[in-house]
Amino acid sequence: MKPPPLRALNSRPRRLTKKRRQRRAIVIHEAAHAVVAERLGIGVWHVSIDDGCLTGFVQAPAPRRWLTRNAIVACAGDIAERRVAPDLVLTDGQDDENARRLLALAYPKAEIDRRLHRATKRARQLVYGQRAVEAEEGADMLQMRLELNEGLA
Question: What is the pTM of this model?
Answer without folding.
Answer: 0.60
